[in-house]
Design brief:
Elements (H helix, E strand, L loop, with lengths): L1 E6 L12 E9 L2 E11 L4 E2 L4 E2 L8 H21 L6 H12 L7 H6 L5 H11 L4 H24 L15 H20 L1 H6 L11 H20 L26 H9 L6 H16 L3 H4 L11 E4 L12 E4 L2 H9 L13 H14 L5 E5 L6 E5 H4 L2 H16 L2 H8 L6 H4 L6 H9 L3
Antiparallel strand pairs: 1-2, 2-3, 4-5, 6-7, 8-9
Helix pairs in contact: 1-2, 4-5, 10-12, 10-13, 10-15, 15-16
GO molecular function, one term: DNA binding
Family: Belongs to the 'phage' integrase family.
Protein name: Recombinase
């Protein structure tokens, strides 16, 4: 037996207004029955292969796409679960109507028991009502989609759990441990249960999650539970008996001013596109911003020989304007691109920028070995710095070299945009070998 969804209507290429009813079809041997649902979609947005929205539909909000894809998958799962050999068209129509209007088929007692919102309903409400920055909302939505896939995973793999729905009142530390296992091994389940990822896709193929990433994910789930508790949506506090460790990071590495200048002066005339990205990287080392803030900059961010911007990561909570005066090298780079229209500099995608940085380091001969923590095993490993160089290394270079000179965290954080008491910033206090040597000399 196989159940699928399909549409019967088509639309012209640029038609964004037409809607088509989504039908469901059940085939079993010679049996082939169909019935309409109450779900609709623009024909140009439908993917028969994905059984829902196409991957890239710019005009439709991600939550709307996710909701419809979930609905389609839920009906397909329901047909598969309830199917009997006696099923006919009337049975299929009734089953779909029952899905859309369950209360028509339930007693008053059953209706009263099912009016409470699910955990995912509350999570959606949390994202609307809890004050979060754009970056944090994006991160929370990654967790939201993973929780929705966890629901489907339990329904698919665990006996007697075909109707499983996450309930905020019923989540226990054992549930959280099971979620942790799912989050940790999701890259394997992508291959084993493709229908889950067709229903709730990600832009990129799932990769192994490091322990730090898992800690970040569960810290966000804990934030959601605390919001539910504070807003009297539940009395359940499962994280009280599910402690979350602190993230573990290696000592930040950064390039010296000599290495920076070697990159700045490297002859990249044979690769002009890399030369442009080299200039952008050096400029980033001179203003110390995150790449997300750099990519939003235009020439309007240059104010009285300084760069001014509000860090995107913190602008929702306590917005502070960061002002970084431009030194000679920074002004020289901006002068090279003064005729460039649009953004401040000729930016490419962040991924291509990171790829270019690695190539630039190698061509410039910046290849010393650095010690890093393997994100998955947390074991120390040695790598040439050009293999691990990225846009964030520019930010670390800015912070590390200035901190080395002034040793005043308040001054440095005023230029870097770190908020007061930032755990990330405190790590930079351990990075200067020369500072350690100076201290030891005090014992002579």
């Amino acid at each position: 037996m196989k159940a699928t969804a399909f549409i019967r209507k088509s639309a012209s290429k640029n038609d964004t207004n037409s809607v088509a009813t989504i039908y469901f079809r059940l085939r079993d041997g010679k049996k082939d029955i169909k019935a309409a649902s109450e779900l609709t979609i623009n024909p140009n947005h439908w993917s028969s292969e994905k059984q829902g929205y196409k991957d890239r539909v710019a005009l439709v909000h991600e939550e709307k796409k996710l909701a419809l894809n979930n609905e389609v998958q839920n009906i397909i799962n329901l047909i598969s679960q309830e199917y009997t050999p006696e099923a006919d068209s009337e049975w299929l129509s009734t089953l779909i109507d029952k899905y859309h209007h369950p209360n028509r088929y339930k007693t008053e007692e059953e209706i009263a028991a099912e009016t409470k919102p699910t955990l995912l309903d509350l999570f959606a409400e949390f994202l609307v009502k809890h004050k979060l920055s754009e970056v944090r909302i994006k991160n929370f939505r990654v967790v939201q989609r993973a929780l929705a896939r966890y629901e489907l995973y339990v329904r698919t793999t665990k006996r007697g759990q075909k109707g499983f729905i996450l309930d905020v009142d019923l989540v226990t530390p054992d549930t959280l441990r099971d979620m942790w296992d799912f989050f940790q091994n999701e890259y394997q389940y992508y291959e084993l249960y493709p229908s889950i990822y067709e229903a709730i896709p990600e832009k990129r193929t799932p990769q192994p999650r490091s322990k730090n990433t898992l800690i970040d994910c569960f810290s966000r789930i804990r934030t959601f539970f605390l919001w539910c508790f504070d807003n009297k949506r539940t009395t359940n506090r499962p994280f009280d008996k599910f402690p979350i460790e602190e993230c573990t990071y290696g000592t930040p590495y950064y390039i010296t001013l000599e290495e920076r200048d070697r990159i700045f002066n490297a002859d990249l005339s044979a690769t002009p596109q890399l030369a442009i990205q080299r200039d952008i990287f050096i400029f980033q080392t001179l203003i110390g911003c995150r790449v997300s803030d750099l990519y939003r900059m235009t020439k309007l961010n240059v104010v009285n020989e300084a760069i001014e911007y509000i860090p995107k990561k913190t602008k929702e909570g306590n917005p502070v304007t960061v002002r970084v005066p431009l030194n000679g090298k920074a002004k020289e780079i901006l002068e090279r691109y003064k005729e460039y229209d649009g953004k401040l500099l000729p930016f490419i995608s962040e991924q291509k920028y990171n790829d270019a940085i690695k190539k630039i380091f190698k061509l410039a001969g910046v290849d010393r070995i650095v010690t890093i923590l393997d994100p998955l095993t947390h074991n120390e490993i040695k790598r040439p710095i050009y293999e691990v160089a990225s846009s964030h290394l520019a930010r670390r270079t800015f912070i590390g070299n200035i901190y080395k000179k002034v040793k005043d965290p308040n001054l440095v954080s005023a230029l870097s945009g770190h908020k007061e008491g930032s755990k990330a910033f405190r790590r930079y206090r351990d990075i200067d070998e020369e500072m350690k040597k100076d201290l030891v000399k005090l014992l002579d």
